[in-house]
Design a protein that fits this description.
Blueprint lengths: L1 E8 L18 E8 L9 H15 L3 H16 L4 H6 L1 H32 L4 E8 L11 E8 L3 H8 L1 H4 L1
Antiparallel strand pairs: 1-2, 3-4
Helix pairs in contact: 4-5
């Protein structure tokens, strides 16, 4: 990689003769530039297409800004960031987000259908049902007792699965 120093006259407006206005201060700034060169092998179809694209970009004076954006995008993505991608291609980011949301929704639909199928085929189990006698268990009555009686449960899972059945079928 070559580093090239060039002198830049920053004195203001220049005439065609190259001279600046008399009242503008004369000063020269030195800036550093890096020149990067690479070769494309025209025997490879993909590199030949790149060479055609490079020629088009150079004709339209877009080569340098395009390469700078491409390198920024590459290193941003490599580091795990999406800022440059979002800046340069917001429509692509939106499409990726839509596809990801659709995939998540589809996964949820499959999971709900599976749970619904399991719940509808599961047997109803008997369980102990608590009941309160002589007052509230949360009150101050000293005689309050909690009595457990055996009963048949209504499957709330089945009821839930049936209630949402229309949304995910």
């Amino acid at each position: 990689m070559k580093i090239k120093q060039t002198g830049v006259n920053t004195s203001g407006v220049h005439h065609k003769s190259g001279k600046s206005h008399r009242d503008a201060p004369q000063r020269r700034e030195t800036r550093l530039q890096v020149q990067v060169r690479f070769n494309l092998n025209l025997r490879h179809d993909d590199e030949k297409m790149l060479a055609d694209d490079v020629a088009y970009l150079r004709q339209n004076r877009q080569f340098r800004p395009t390469i700078i954006k491409a390198l920024k995008l590459f290193f941003d993505l490599k580091d795990g960031y999406l800022d440059v991608l979002t800046e340069l291609f917001p429509e692509v980011v939106e499409r990726i987000q839509r596809n990801a949301q659709n995939a998540e929704i589809e996964a949820l639909r499959r999971e709900i259908a599976e749970l619904k199928a399991r719940t509808l085929t599961a047997p109803v189990a008997a369980h102990e049902t608590p009941s309160v006698t002589n007052g509230s268990p949360f009150g101050t009555a000293k005689n309050a007792t909690l009595k457990l009686t055996k009963g048949i449960a209504v499957s709330t899972g089945k009821a839930f699965a049936n209630s949402i059945g229309g949304y995910f079928d």
